[in-house]
Structures are given as structure tokens and as C-alpha cells.
Amino acid sequence: MKKIARASFFPVLAVMLALLIGAVLILIQGKNPVLAYGFLLQGALGNKGAIAETLVKATPLIFTGLAVTLAYRCGVFNIGAEGQLLLGALGATWAAIYLEVPAFLVLPVSLLAGFLAGGLWGAIPGYLKAKRGLNEIINTILLNYVAIQVVSYFVTGPMKEPPGYFPQSAQVPQAAWLDKILIGTRLHSGLILGLVFAAVVYYFLFHTTYGFSVRLVGTNRDAAEYGGINVPRNFVLAMLLSGGLAGLAGSVEILGVRHRLMNGIASGYGFDGIAVALLGNLHPVGVVIASVFFGVLRTGANTMQRAVGIPASVVGIIQALVIFFVVAAATLKDPSLLRLGRREKGEDKAC
Amino acid sequence: MVTSLLVMKGIVKRFPGLLANDNIDFEVAPGEVHALLGENGAGKSTLMNILSGLYVPDAGEILLRGKRVTITSPKEAIELGIGMVHQHFMLIPAMTAAENIILGLRSPKEPWLGLAEAETRIRALSERYGLSVNPRTKVSELSVGEQQRVELLKALYRDADLLILDEPTAVLTPEEAESLFAIIHRLAGEGATVIFISHKLKEVMRISDRVTILRHGRIIGTVVTAEATSAQLATMMVGREVLFEAFPKSGGGSTVMAVKNVTYVTAEGKKALEGVSFDLRESEVVGIAGVDGNGQSQLARIVTGLLPPASGRIELLGQDMTGKTADCFIRAGVAHIPEDRNKMGLSGDMSIAENLVFKSIDQPPFSSLKGFRLHHAQVREHALKLAGEYDIRSAGVNTFCRNLSGGNRQKVILARELSQTPVVLVAVHPTRGLDVGATDFIHRQIIDARDSGCAVLLISSDLDEVLRLSDRILCIYEGKIMAELSGKEPDLERIGLLMAGKGAEE
Ligand SMILES: Nc1ncnc2c1ncn2[C@@H]1O[C@H](COP(=O)(O)OP(=O)(O)OP(=O)(O)O)[C@@H](O)[C@H]1O
Ligand SMILES: [Mg+2]
Question: Which end of chain A is more exposed for a tag (fewer CB within 10 A), N or C?
């Protein structure tokens, strides 16, 4: 209990500060912040449909948040969840449309394809870091742009839906769709899958020796090497799994919501995954909670804009401020976060 | 009696589950060198961190020059003339000495940096206190001793006249320590006051005017150094007599590890090791005597699989191990107490329990299903047992290692390495930073390991330690083994010469 209170102190504080500054911004525009936030909440949680929509938005965030968390725990800063998500979406769509498997296998095979496509996309910067010492932050960012172009190529070329008026793929067969879990809404079983994967990642990190090695590499690479752990292999493994999780984010978005591949499908879920991971204290349970919070912001923003006339971008600012405060608080607690990515990890405490 | 420069009254500092400073009264006279002595985890660093603004005490007051002060940040401490040199330096390697020194200060010539003026002032300070450092050299290119001087200059540049040195000699070679003592004398001569933390009684006896002893977070007493003996101080410190009795020497058995003609060349093209050959035998301690930086680091890493040699062979129980990974060496039973405990030996952001098992995590009882599933209960039980055996003092085995005192961190490493009943133990500075009681304890553990068959390679810059433990002594100089001596009544003078590169046979 005490542990939970301590772990959530800084995230909650960060959210409150961000909302406070957001309120000031709303005031500056001559609007009532209490009213604005009221509409935001109503839009996100006011009725069954709103709640469902919030959870629909939270679902891919759970996956990308887990992706960033897993890599970060290994000391790898994965900024490329956005691109891995896109590749995952591509892989899942391709498998669902073109692979000929029995109907009951279409869905699992599509998910697997999405996982693998995202995983391999993530493994590239993982491998480059492990074998060549190249900075994963730069490589994952760059691969995001490549991923956007790859998807664009496929939806305007090889995978374009006949007769070919729109840059989008054909619809994936019904057999590949994730079931709706709340009638009359878009909420689909991807959410349940997300919760299952949160549990899996938790188990992996804290109850397996592989997770133990990942955490040792992430907290002190030199100690891991000294302890006989194959550090490069852990980098590749972590990025493979991380990319796979991000790939699943894209897969569930396709199979649960969009049902076809098109440009712009990632819509920032990959980048928000970084914020979700940090706000969630790099812990799977925290990630789930933070995902729902970001889902609320995404869903409620439009209602707020319509009702009070404040641009939805205020919500973007609030999101950015949350990240800012979370990182600031984290570095207060643990200065080593500032040094992430630097090879030498000495100690900072005097003794 | 002279009025005190500093009075700390009733200082209390609590950490979760632990009372680090328990109602401490501490007083320092102006211009004196005051030593602070105490076991590992006694609370010395904590008390000094309070003084330098890193920690805020839970109770108590501080009087400086008769005035009551509250120090809530390092900046305020500096404004009050208090400067601290931490055991782990806080310098930025990519910047020059001068840049590090002026970091965080306002330039008198804003918006310009005023580096030239700063350098002039630094040179003047260097001159005055005998702290020779080139202000233009990058910190990454400075030796440990020079880096420490930069830290000192940093404090002096900010006009500190109360200097706190937390275990400054733990990382220095004997020569560097000598020059530090000269500097401390100069400082005291110029009117500065120095608080000096050390576990080495010899140093304390030599350098200090008075000594205050801490135990379990409480003050045991303050004595005038000239009126005390080191045996007395040791007794006050650990609460019992510490007898450094001699160990019986051992003859050794069959060869366990053979190092054959090993050479290593650094990235800069310097020969760090040249044609090094020796055997480690069953039930025997081989000590490497030498001044730090003569190839010992590379040797330790090569015989534990962390560094492949440029040429030569390592054999373990007749098997060729050259080029094998560290993992293979660990599995074959080679234990390693590494040189730098914080950088390599421990992960500060993991718990004591986790640090105690990270080399054997894939084995039962810590995991099952071929090293898949982790068993937290067993890991914890193991940790509780070792924490008891090795007297690791903390708020509990779930404490992050970063929150341990220096000595207790070392005990975690020792416990992990020795509890595996190793075939070979490579121990590098095993008691660096440990108090006398703990040092004696570790020495006994090493001898126990030897007596139960372990082959020990001891690398230490502390000659007393090498002499006390070794059955055979190898002198190393510039990467070459100069000579081998018996550990029984070795010729000290000869060792001294050999370590300086003189007097080798042939
Ligand atoms: N930030 C912290 N959080 C929790 N416990 C701490 C923290 N800092 C120190 N401690 C604990 O307080 C006690 C006193 O530590 P301190 O570093 O002052 O010891 P010390 O006398 O300097 O020992 P050493 O000679 O080993 O350096 C230790 O048991 C240590 O584990
Ligand atoms: Mg200390």
C-alpha cells in the first residue's frame, strides 16, 4: 500500500501541475477552466459510449506504453514505437488479407504477423546498438520516417484496394476482426488483449530470469557484463519484444477499429506511448492507468473544443506538460535518468 | 579554550527504517585537522552530507562561527565557506579542469565566460597550496589524484575555509596520498579547517589534531590524537579489540590456474602487460604487489574473462580458457571482487537481494524451469542469510544498493563472490574503504576460502594487506612481473625496490 502511494506520488503531482497550467491557459483565453475540464470529463466519461471511446483510445496506448517500458528497463530508449506500430499494422493487414489459412486461424496469425513485423523493425536499431554501438534514439526516430513511407508505398501501390481511388488497403476479412465487447460502441477485445499483455510483461520483467537480466543491463551495463550476461543479446531481445508490442498496438488498431490500412493510422500513439510509460512509472500497472488517462484526454478534447470553444490543442499542451513534469520529477528522484544512453554509469551518491 | 568554528548539536537523521545519525554533538576548532572515524555505515558521510547541504537533518542545530545557520542546499553551504570533496568525484570528464572549477558560478565578466581570469586565479591557488594541476587539461585525462586536486581547487575557488574530505585516500596510490597530506598541512597552515574521513588509522594518527569516533550513528567520543594510540582508536570504533593476528602460511597444492606469457596492449598502443606468467595453486594466496596502474587492472580482467589478452594463454584446471567469455569463467568457478565496486560490482538501482544473486540467478534454488521462473522467496532468504553472515547493515535486503554506505556495498560484493565456494578468487582491493573490523573479517574469509582449497589471486595497493595474506608475492612494475618472493618473512626493502622497477634479477 505504502509502495503504491510512493510510486504514484510524482505522477499524480505531475498531472495536477499540468492541469493547473492548462487551466491558466484556458483562463488567458477568457474561458472558464472548471467548465472546460467539466466538458472534457463529460466527453470522455459521461456515458457508456464516451467511456467506450476512451478505452478504444487507451488500447493501443497500453501496447505502446508497454513497448517503451520494456525497452527502457533494458536501458534502451525506444522513440520508435510509432514506426514499429505502423509496421505492425502493415504486417497484420497483409497477413489478414493475403495469407490463406483456416478462418479460425486468421486472427491469431494476423496478430502474430503484426508482432513480428513490429519486432523486426525494432530489432534493427537494437542490433545496431548491440553490434555497432550506434545510438538507438537517433535510429529509432529515423526509422519512424522510413516506416511512414513504407506504409504509404504499400497503400498506394501493392496493397491498394481495387479499383484504386483511395490510398488505402482492402478491408480485412471479418474473420480477422477483434470482437466488439460492448454493444453499440467501438470497444473491442483488443483491450482485453492489452491487459493480458500488461500481465505478461509484468511477469516477464519481475518473475523471470530473462527479465532480471534485462533489468540488470538497464540499471548497470558494466555490472551485467561483469556478471556474465550477454549485454548485446539483451539489447536485441529487448528491442525485438518492444517493437513487437508496438506492432501489436498497430495490429489491434487495424483488426479492432479501422479494419483497413491507410496513411496516418498511427496518429501519435507511438509517441504518446513514451509519455504513458514515463507517467506509468515504467511499470505495467502504471502503464495501464496512464493509458486510460491519456485516452480520457484524447477523447474529451473534442467535446471541450465544441462546448467551450477552446482549441483541442490545449490538451496537447497538457499532455506535453505532463511529460515534462514526470521527467523533471523522475530526475529529482534519480539523476541517472538524465544520463540515459550514456555508456558510463557511475555512482552519484557520496559515501 | 578557543571558540569553536563549527558546532553541530543534537543532529538526528533518519532514513526509512534506519537511524543514521542519532543525536550527534560534534565540534570543530578553527584551523584544526579533525578526523572522523567510524565503522562502515556508522553515519560519517551522512553527517558530512548534512553539513554540505545534501541532506536536511530531522532535528538538531548547526552553529558556524557562533552563529546559528540552516543549510538546505550545497549552494548555501558554499556561501558559508563549507566545501566538500566527495568520495566519488562530481566532475564532468569532457570539460577542462578550469571549466569544472567555475561551473555554476557567475562570471564577473558576464556574458563572457572569463576563463582566462579564472585560470590565473586557479594557478595562484595551485601555487599557494601546492595543488599542481594544469587548468587546461580535460578531466578525463587526469589521474585520480589530480581529479581530487581539482575538487579541492573547486572548493578553494569558492573561498571555502572549512573543507570536508570524505575518504580521500581510498582511491589514491601511496605517493598521491603523501602529497595529499602535504597539501592538508599547507591548508591548515594557511588557516583552513579540515575534516578528514578515513578508515586507515595510520593516516589518522599522522595527519589529524583530534579524532571523533562514531559508532552506530552515535558519538563515542573525541580525543586529542597525540594522546591516543591506534589500538585505542580501533577499540573505540568497533567496541571490541581488533587483533590483526598473523595467519599461518600455506604451501599450496596442485596448479589450478596457469597464466602463460600474457601480453596486453591498450587502445593507445601502450603495453599494459608484457610476458606475464604465473601459476595459482590450490589452497594458496598469491599477492600482486605494485603501485596502482602498473597493469593490475588489465591482469584482473584478463584472468576473469572480461578482457581477451593480446597474446598468451589462460588455463583453468588444464583447460584452455583463452578468449572465453566472462560467463564461462563464472561457471568454471572463478569469483571476482572487482576494482570499482560502483561501476562494475553492483547495480545501484537494484536491491541488495538482487545484487547478491545476479551471477547465479539462472540456477536453483533462485530459479526453476531451466532458469526461467524467478523465486523471490529463495532470493530473499539467501539475502537474509548472507546479510547476517557478512554483517551487511541496511534498512533491509530490499534496499537499493545505491543507498548503502561505501563499506556495506563492498560487503555485498564479497558475500556474493565468496558464498559461491569459488575455485579461484580474484580479489582486487578487497578491503578498500572498509573499516578495521570489516577488513579483519574479510581477511579471515579469504584465508578460510584458501584453507578450503580456493586459489586466491590478491591484487592490492595496500602492501600491509598483501604481506598479511599472501603465501607468495609477485612484484609487478610496468606490466612485468619483476620477481617472485615467498610470503614467509619477505624482504620488505627488496619489495619496495622491485615495485619501483629496480633490483630485478637477471
Ligand atoms: N539515501 C539513503 N537512504 C537510505 N539509507 C541510507 C541513505 N544514505 C545512507 N543510508 C544508510 O545510513 C547509514 C549510514 O551511512 P553513511 O553513508 O553515513 O555511513 P559511513 O559512516 O559513511 O560508512 P562508510 O565508511 O561505509 O562509508 C548506512 O546504513 C546507510 O545504508
Ligand atoms: Mg562514507
Answer: N
Residue of A nearest to B327 (CA): A228
In chain A, which residues have their Cβ closer than 8 Å to the Cβ of B325?
228, 230
Q: What are the phi and psi torsion angles at B486 (to 5°)? A: -75, 145
Strand order in the sheet with B6-15: B18-28, B6-15, B59-64, B67-69
C-alpha cell of residue B442: 574479510
Asked whether the predicted pLDDT for residue B243 surpasses 60, the reply is yes
More confident residue, B132 or A122: A122
Q: For residue B216, is it left (φ>0), alpha (ψ between -120 and 50) or beta?
A: left
CATH tag, B245-333+456-506: 3.40.50.300
- Those residues whose beta carbon sits under 5 angstroms from the ion ligand 2 are A 351; B 45, 406
| Cell representation of residue A154 | 504499400
| Separation in Å, CA of A251 to nearest CA in chain B | 28
Would you state the pLDDT for residue A341? 35
CA pair distance A215, B374, nearest whole angstrom: 13
Looking at chain B from residue 390 to 409, which residues have their Cβ under 8 Å from any Cβ of chain A? 402-406, 409
Beta strands in B343-451 (DSSP E): 367-368, 373-374, 424-428
Chain A interface disruption, residue of B48, B86, B358, B403, most A CBs within 10 A: B358
CA distance B197 to B204: 8
Is the CB of residue B20 below 6 angstroms from any atom belonging to ligand 1? yes
The number of beta carbons lying within 10 Å of the beta carbon of residue B421 is 12
Q: What is the spatial distance between Cα A17 and Cα B234, in angstroms, rounded to a whole number?
A: 53
The answer to whether the CB of A308 falls within 8 A of the CB of A39 is yes
Q: Could you read off the pLDDT of B108-127 as tens digits, one per residue?
A: 777 788 888 899 999 999 88
Residue B461 C-beta-side C-alpha neighbours within 13 Å: 21
Tally Cβ neighbours within 10 Å of residue B221.
Answer: 10
Interface contact A336-B349, CB threshold 8 A = yes
- Lowest-pLDDT range, B206-210, B431-435, B445-449? B431-435
Q: Which CATH superfamily does the domain covering B6-238 fall into?
A: P-loop containing nucleotide triphosphate hydrolases (3.40.50.300)
- Closest Cα to atom 28, ligand 1: which residue? B41
Q: Tell me the per-residue pLDDT of A61-111, one tens digit each, with 9 for 90 and over.
A: 999 999 999 999 999 999 999 999 999 999 999 999 999 999 999 999 999
Question: What pLDDT shows up at residue A337?
Answer: 45
Q: Indicate the SS3 state at residue A88.
A: helix
pLDDT-based confidence at A332, cuts 50/70/90?
low
Minimal-distance CA residue to ligand 1 atom 2: B403
The identity of residue A346, as a single letter, is G
Domain boundaries, chain B: 6-238, 245-333+456-506
For residues B169 and B102, the answer to whether their CB atoms sit within 8 Å is no
> Do A351 and B45 count as a contact with CB atoms less than 8 A apart?
yes
Count CB-CB contacts under 10 A for residue A108. 12
d(CA A206, CA A213): 10
Atom 6, ligand 1: which residue's CA is nearest? B403
Q: Do domains B6-238 and B245-333+456-506 have the same CATH topology?
A: yes
Mean pLDDT of A197-214: 96
Q: State which H helix or E strand residue B117 sits in.
A: helix B115-129
The overall average pLDDT reported for chain A is: 90
pLDDT, residue B304, reads 96
pLDDT surpasses 90 at A9: no
The pLDDT, as a whole number, for residue B505 is 58
**DSSP string across A68-86:** HHHHHHTT-----HHHHHH
ipTM: 0.85
Chain segment A28-60, per-residue pLDDT in tens: 989 999 999 999 999 999 999 999 999 999 999
Higher-pLDDT residue of A2 and A8 is: A8
Give distance in angstroms: CA of A33 to centre of ligand 1: 47
